[in-house]
Amino acid sequence: MKKSIFFCFTVLFFTITSFAQERTAKKDEFKEVIWPIKAFKPDMKFLKIKAIGKNGKMYAVKAIQNSNQTSLLDVKAFIKGKRLPVKMLVGDGKYYPVKAIDDKGNIFDIKAITDDGQFLPVKGVSKSGNIVHVRAIYKDMIFYNVIAISPDGKTNAIKGIKMVSDDVETTINGTEIFAHIKAISQTTY
Fold first, then answer.
1. Are 68 and 90 in the same domain?
2. CA–CA distance from 182 to each of 15, 45, 105 (Å)?
3. Are 159 and 131 in contact (CB under 8 A)?
4. What is the C-alpha end-to-end distance of the chain, expressed in Å?
5. Based on the structure, what is the number of domains in the chain?
6. How many Å apart are CA 144 and CA 137, to the nearest integer?
7. Nearest CA-CA partner of 90 in 159, 166, 145
8. pLDDT tens sequence across 76-116
9. What pTM did the predictor assign?
10. 24 and 35, same structural domain?
11. Residue 125 near residue 114 (C-beta atoms within 8 A)
12. Fewer C-beta neighbours within 10 Å, C or N terminus of the chain?
């Protein structure tokens, strides 16, 4: 009797651990997917979106897919080997500026760049409940949608997400944050 109980527990143990190892292996198999972020002009042109330091140096801004789900992706600025958070700051007027913030509290502007080299600010322009709509703005009159594009052509809209009703969502490295920037599937909101 003791041998049969020991045998059953042994079989059960190896069965459970083999399934656990299989799940872990499948999870580790997913390779991170980087989605470029662009501003979309109505004439079917895409504008590059960059983080720009005080010295004028430009850095990539991308959405990061780190699992099979594509409904909600983090947006980061790739600066000097680090992935910095991209957030919407508390506004000083009618718009909310979108910026990247490093671990020392330095702010990097997020801008769309036109073919002729103009820099368009990227800002939150309006709210729908907890969603803040992000646009690249040309002369305070023309708004361009900002999107993330997957390597296989899917698109997610870049939006600000509010988790609390207060103007200040949180503070990151001394900077007051209005909303978190995410790439959201357009069927999600």
1. yes
2. 40, 22, 20
3. yes
4. 60
5. 2
6. 6
7. 166
8. 999 999 999 999 999 877 899 999 999 999 999 999 999 89
9. 0.81
10. no
11. no
12. N
